Amino acid sequence: MRGFIKQILPPFLLALARGRPPRTHPSWAQTLAACPAAYADDRLNRFRHERARLNLAELGENDLTAGYALLKFAAFSAGGGIPVIVDFGGGCGEYGHVLGRHLSRKIDYRVVENETLARLCGSDPAFSWATFTSTPPASADIFFTSGTVQYLPEPYDVLERCFSTTREFVILARNSFSRTERSFHVQRSRLADNGAGRTLPSGYDPEQPIFYPHGTIEIERVMAIAAQAGWDPFVTLPNESGVRGGSEEFGCDIAFRRRDPIST
To answer: How far apart are CA 64 and CA 10, in angstroms?
Structure first.
């Protein structure tokens, strides 16, 4: 019987029947189909929102990743009046909340997230210091994203748009780069690995497995997109926290500055 099942089941269904998704897939669509649940699931988003609500007041600069220092530098250095900062895939805006408390100037912080999380945070008065939306604004002074690009089905389209519509700084943090074309995997984490803060909300199993599709990003293609749009990298810092663990992957944070900044 086991031999018969192996013959009739596709590899990814066989892996799921064994309780584990397969490690690689030929396309993003097949990777997404192999995930037992979507990354934008309602329960996951409610957990992230409730966790942020419990921990925002206690979060400090030391609780954030190295990419925060690059974001702070860009926010401090941006010209003009109040800089518009887009945090693409920014969760509940934890970076913006900490940044606003440690910066001597006002900022216009806009978090782009999935529709469910944007609605939860955008309708909560506790998060009124930021704007939450599922659609990127037409332009910004600073584009920041941390640990997000590798989880997009069309990352290069997003990057082309950000380099064409951002006026001064683009910061890509916690990346999963490779020097080859994209390779696709199902990544697994615990529910407690999602969000920020030491206090977890009640009513959730912190060990609940969360699966989501992951695809490496070809670094030469990113650099080519930036160069063609008139951007140069000015800081590159090693950062392996966004790497899934494949032998072809490496991580770093990259900050870009536009050669000729666009005035507001």
So the answer is: 41
Q: Are 11 and 24 in contact (CB under 8 A)?
A: no
The rounded distance, in Å, linking the Cα atoms of 206 and 175 is 25
**Model confidence band, residue 133 (pLDDT cutoffs 50, 70, 90):** very high
Residues with Cβ within 8 Å of 3's Cβ and at least 6 positions away in sequence, in order, are: none
3-state secondary structure of 112: strand
Q: List beta partners, residue 236.
A: 254
List the chain domain ranges. 23-258
Q: What gap in Å lies between CA 226 and CA 149, rounded to an integer? A: 15
- Indicate the CATH number for domain 23-258: 3.40.50.150
Residue 116 confidence (pLDDT): 95
Whether the predicted pLDDT of 7 surpasses 60: no
Average pLDDT over residues 93-97: 97
pLDDT one-digit tens code per residue, 57-82: 999 999 998 899 999 999 999 998 99
Cα atoms in the 13 Å half-sphere on the side-chain side of 196: 19
CB neighbour class for 175 (10 Å; exposed up to 12, middle 13-18, buried from 19): buried
Residue 188: exposure state from Cβ atoms within 10 A (0-12, 13-18, ≥19): middle
**Mode of pairing for the β-strands spanning 252-258 and 166-173:** antiparallel
Residue 43 neighbours by CB distance under 10 Å: 12
Q: Is the pTM of this model over 0.85?
A: yes
Q: Residue type for 260, please?
A: D
Q: Give, for 41, the enclosing helix (H) or strand (E).
A: none
Give the C-alpha separation, 169 to 73, whole Å: 10
